[in-house]
Design goal:
Elements lengths: L6 H26 L3 H4 L8 H34 L5
């Protein structure tokens, strides 16, 4: 099996992706609920529902990265077990 990133990078990417997913889902839910602090100023987005949809889409992208890096971590673990140690 082929690895594309190092074990440390895969672990770091997985943790950051997990945190990003949580943050974006919570932010998307807040925009979807039209929380006053996020939608009351003139510089805030005109369509909070569209902003929530963008947050959820970004969370899906982060989930794809989490899946890829999680697979890379498993490949590193599998390869380290199958190495011949003398």
């Amino acid at each position: 099996m082929k690895t594309f990133v190092s074990p440390g990078n895969a672990t770091c990417c997985s943790m950051l992706s997990f945190c990003g997913i949580i943050f974006l889902v919570v932010l998307g839910m807040a925009f979807d609920a039209k929380v006053e602090i996020l939608t009351e100023f003139t510089s805030d987005p005109d369509d909070p529902k569209l902003t929530a949809k963008a947050c959820f889409s970004a969370a899906i992208v982060y989930a794809c990265f989490l899946g890829f890096c999680g697979c890379q971590m498993l490949v590193h673990k599998f390869n380290s077990r199958n190495q011949i140690q003398l």
